[in-house]
Amino acid sequence: MSRCGRLLSVLATLFLLPPPGFAAEPQARTIAFTYRVTVQPDDTAAGPMDIFLPIARDTPQQQVLQVRVEAPVAGDFGNEEIYGNRFWHARLAEPPDTPLTIQVDYRVRRYRFGRDDLQQASADYGPDVQRDYARFLQANQRVPVEGELIRDVLADIPLAPSDTPVAEARKIYDYVIDTMEYKKVGSGWGNGDTYWACSKEYGNCTDYHALFTSLARARDIPARFEIGFPVPLDQKAGRISGYHCWLELYLPEVGWTPIDASEADKHPAMRETYFGPHPANRIHFTTGRDLTLSPAQSTGPLNYFVYPLVEVGEARYSGVATEFRYRVLGTATAAKTPGHRAP
Question: Which of 45, 110, 147, 168 is the one with CA 20 to 30 A from 212?
Fold first, then answer.
């Protein structure tokens, strides 16, 4: 970000009011969510077709009260083995000759995450963290955790030997926000690629959080990628144009804690809100990168999994349309989240 851009960000932090809907932020919201997929016919495609849809599950910030799948074909629920993600899978002998629509209707209770005391955590990690959280310290295909690039970026962050993991995480958070610019221009953004984020310094939520993940893991802070859909606080119903993603960091004395650098950059007045506490303005679908389902897909690991995966033979099928809608059924001003889940 240019010097002018940083100045504008500081001014926004000082003078902008929070976005509409944050003033009376609910502690919990009950949301009806519709995930609709239409597979279009294609006369050129031949062979068996596999359809995989991600399925939302319970987390400390949400309870999935109802899942109902309406489909003209038979399917089964499955579980991805590494992160425990759920999915629905159907196998067809051949692609459909007329449009095939599958709709998944949810009722989800989403909670505000109330982690407002992070700065009070002063401990370092115990000796078991490297063992118990190893998967959240390793590189992904697009997210390196070592090498010259990562060392050069870390050298630009004023880390000190006396910093606790929470203090280091906050400095990385501020660096990512101050360096990156949220925009979708040209091609290359949206893959969650640390190399892209470092060279272009712009992108969407996946690019922000790829950079954050690389830097956090390089400092031995466990970080896990989460993705789902935004549900605005200032509207009771509407259509959702696309996904949103964020991170959770495992911090001593605190546990898994959500971080959302891209939303903080888009709404400078909310920078504190998105480091630890989190509004009830999203639904979580899946965790992790480089995902292999079971039965395994033919086209290689998924960079992330929030949209349908449709394959014919060993190729991805492009004739797929999606629609996502939500309706807020109710809110609560006092609610208690279920608590942290295991790694």
Answer: 110
CB-CB contact of 178 with 197 (8 Å): no
Q: What share of the chain is helix, strand, coil (3-state, %, to 5)?
A: 20, 35, 45
pLDDT digits (tens, 9 = 90+) for 81-109: 999 999 999 999 999 999 999 999 999 99
Q: Who contacts 241 (Cβ-Cβ below 8 Å, separation ≥6)?
A: 324
Task: Say which residues have a Cβ less than 8 Å from residue 150's Cβ, sequence separation at least 6.
Answer: 144, 194, 214, 215, 218
Query: Would you state the pLDDT for residue 150?
Result: 97
pTM attached to this predicted model: 0.90
Contact 27, 280 (CB under 8 A): yes
- Containing 88, the helix (H) or strand (E) segment is strand 86-92
Q: How many percent of the chain have pLDDT more than 90?
A: 80
Sign of the C-alpha dihedral computed for residues 118, 333, 266 and 140 taken in this order: positive
